[in-house]
Amino acid sequence: MIGAGRPGASLVTNTVEAVRLIRRTAPREYVLLLVCTIVSGLGLVLLLVAGRELIHDLTVSDRPDDIGPLVPSLVGIAVGTGLTTLASAVQAEVRWLMAHLVERQSVTAVVDAASAVSLAELESPDFQDHLQRTLRQAAQRPWDLVQAVSQLAGAAVGGVVGAVVLATVEPWLVPAALLVGLPVLLVAGRNSRAMFAAVSAITPVNREREYLQELLTGRDEAKEIRAFESVDHLRHRYEQRYDDEIEGFRVVSRLRSRRLFLAGIGSTLITVATLAVLVGLSVDGRLPLADAAIGAVAVQQLTMRVRGIGGSISSIQESSLFLDDHAAFVQRAARARVDDVPRDPARQPAPRGAAVALDDVSFTYPGATVPALRGVSLELRPGRVTALVGANGSGKTTIAKLICRLYEPDGGAVTWDAALAGSGELPRVGVIFQDFLRYQLSAHDNIALGDSRRHADRAGVEAGARAAGADTFLTRLTRGFDTWLSPSFEGGTDLSVGQWQRVAMARALFRDAPVVVLDEPTAALDPLAEREMIDGTTALFGDRAVLVISHRFANVVHADDIVVLSEGEIVERGTHETLMARGGTYAEMYTTQAAAFGTERHA
Ligand SMILES: Nc1ncnc2c1ncn2[C@@H]1O[C@H](COP(=O)(O)OP(=O)(O)OP(=O)(O)O)[C@@H](O)[C@H]1O
Ligand SMILES: [Mg+2]
What we know:
three-stranded antiparallel sheet, binds adenosine-5'-triphosphate, Rossmann fold, single chain, 603 residues, 2 domains
């Protein structure tokens, strides 16, 4: 976007790019700001010219006796003041709007980029740091940038006026006065880089602090941190992280202040020298008093504006580094877009009769040392229920994620029946994750988000709710399906965990998908509800290919195929009867659970 990060990009290039960015994002406001700036400049010209006339009239020997001849210059001063005042009032409003528009554009670009990346990329700490930094800066930098660009325009116009007036008094004072901007510009690059480095270094601390803040203020977190009385401890850590952040900024701020202080001394000396020359010329009688006086005002104007220009350019320079970082983030995210994960062009379709198949799949999570899956092969067939069992951490959920194509396998392949593939080349999957989402939206939204293309289909939503046994309690809510499922919103309410699970099931059922993945779908259901859900499974899913993951054997015994996973590998497979007869891991797990209830299923 802006080129500060590119070697050789100059202050001028960055400034031009910044102006272009604003012009693109807020074209109307940009024009309005230009008009205001010009009006304000005209006001300033009028003020200086009329001021000069007035001083001249008051200091000449044949001074007028009454106010009459002074009226034109007085009116000029009044109109000049009025124009600059009005223009700056409008400018403030336009700047405010402009900054919002640029902020919206830059924040939305980050949101779009982050919401399209692969899960593997999204989970990486480096991506999270970059995301955090970019989001924060995307919200803040546009304000600085708009402020700086608008000040730059104002200062440039004021500077030109000052320079022209000064040139009519004493031309060679103009370049002398222009020198005041130099010291500020000399430190600008270093100061911006120091700030960028500080912000980058602080980001991980900042993320931790914001997470602690979320713990301390979040509704979902509130129960635990109060019940465990961990508020004070967390708050202490929150303060510590804040201290670390502030200390980081203090260090860079000290460094920057030292440089700016020296630059300020340089500019002041140049201003004083220029004024001294003017005074000297006047004392020598080489310059009339009116000219000297207006020359002094012009020097003051010019040096002030030139310092303003220097400051604005420094600020733009600093924002440029962050905007480059923003552009780098968007590019990085574009490279890791989930839609663009290179698909094997020679990918074979799933074996005949299978909706989805895993063929010798291995997978290690990014950053992990131990593979989560090793040589896993299994098929999900239409009209059949496949059950996946195994100890905690054995890789069951990982298989569910691979079927949903949230990750690409490192070895082997996930294939599917081409006839089932939707427009995105992938088969549609209806899924309940173990940690399914509880949207703080309406009950309707919670189900309809299973298939956004049919979001308005209330009859379908109600049918999904009925099939999952969620209709009885949802219709009883104050506003039925339109009730917000969060007490944090006006008129909203919360559900019990089991009710939430039924809503999640309704969402999966609402999605018209040939493949259904249920990861612990009945963990929170009461025994009767679980029985009902299991008995209804076959009828509910018809000819869909279903994968059920469960530790509850009641969910598993009726499955057409049972696959037993241990440490990422399939160790057994078969029906309940064959696996029981085999007397292996499955039989042991089943017997242990059955024994706990004092019952045994007699197959
Ligand atoms: N996002 C992740 N990043 C790194 N490692 C992960 C991630 N998710 C899971 N793992 C690891 O992968 C392994 C398999 O996890 P998985 O969630 O598939 O287990 P599971 O069989 O579903 O267990 P459970 O019965 O507890 O749900 C575990 O060792 C886990 O620590
Ligand atoms: Mg799991």
